[in-house]
Amino acid sequence: MKAILLLALRSAWARRLTLGITLIAIALSSALLIAVERVRGDAHMSFTQSISGVDLVVGARTGGVQLVLYAVFHSGAATNNIRWDSFEAISSHPSVAWAVPISLGDNHRGHPVVGTTAEYFERSRYADGRSIAFAAGRPFAGSVDRVFEAVLGSDVARELGYRVGDRITLTHGMAELGPDHADKPFTVVGVLAPSGTPVDRAAHVSLEAITAIHLDWAGGAPLPGLAIPAEQVRKFELRPKEITAVLVGLKNRSEVFRLQRHINSYRGEPLLAVLPGVALDELWQTLGMVERTLFALSALVVLVGLAGLTATLLAGLSERRRELAILRALGASPSALFLMLTFEGLLVTALGICFGIVLLAAGISGLAPLAQTHFGMHLSLRPPGANELALLASILATGLLASLVPGWRAWRMSLADGLTVRN
What we know:
By secondary structure, the chain is of the alpha+beta class. 51% of the residues lie in helices and 16% in strands. The protein has helices at residues 2-14, 16-48, 64-72, 84-91, 119-123, 154-160, 207-213, 256-264, 276-284, 288-319, 321-329, 334-375, 386-412, 415-419; strands spanning 56-60, 82-83, 96-108, 111-116, 125-126, 130-131, 134-137, 149-152, 167-168, 171-172, 186-192, 203-206, 217-218, 221-222, 242-243, 245-250, 271-274. Strands 1, 3, 4, 7, 8, 9, 10, 11, 12, 16 and 17 form an eleven-stranded mixed beta sheet that branches. Strand 5 and strand 6 form a beta hairpin. Helix 2 (16-48) packs parallel to helix 12 (334-375), helix 10 runs antiparallel to helix 12 (334-375) and helix 12 (334-375) packs antiparallel against helix 13. The two termini are 35 Å apart.
């Protein structure tokens, strides 16, 4: 047995160029299949952790997915706002550790404007609990004497070429060509570091600023004959009357369902509290067809690579007729030849899988920072998980089955077939 395996190794080495090409094909296809599984898992994790550390998202009563879409991803529009006194009632609940209000409805050159408090930058988490960081500048003050300050996400600053100290003007509503608030410009005081989350694509101002720019507006349009200069807004009460949503963190996460029921049955106004992870999982299910399609294409690539291995071994049998016949003449049994050919195919498959894992690790090491910055996907460099090991085992098993075909052909070839001269 040992001699047969050693002979198989030497035979494979003698044909290293041909088998090497097949090995590369198997390595690339294996890396692709595992990469799809790794990206699928990590993308799901990054998607569900776009807003990490938030136990509940509260807004006007609507669908849970819709609430998370506009409160977290700033996509779509809220069906209604919630009153400020409702926010105060939620934030003062004994189970609540912190509550951050969010006000939406304006934009800057197509990017959503988020009205909130400076605590938003402290409480916002993503991926594995990372904090939102500043690439330059500081948070907005949110005080009466410094109302018109803005903090830009990394995508906004990069696409529009803004830096700390620049002046920007907000536009009313979510339409880019809507009426603007040109009489009340903002100063950029901070630029956030890339996080790959919706924070990158938004401009952030204080709740007081949202109220200030709408003092002389009503019904989505400026009041005729009324214009309040920017320097005069501090004379008015700037506390908002309504907000769009609330991000809530609890002192004890075991209280989340009790607080959710309390908010959903709140008598002051119809409210909805959703667990962001549950809503995001529900949203992710809509992408299931895309996942399955990518996985099927990757599996097809693997099968093509293994079919190439079978074809290579079968094509080599014609060249090795004399070799196999001599081995038979020297006493090698048909089963020994079957074992030798099968071991060669299994060896190439196993080495291809190992090289595929190395290629995957190298690719993740090089592409992880770009994936985090541009797509918000945290790719982790880790040993293969249970699902990935199962896929690798299936590739190895399929490679073994593919190797049985040339092994069976070698077993069926007779001694006379190898020693007969063919014209």
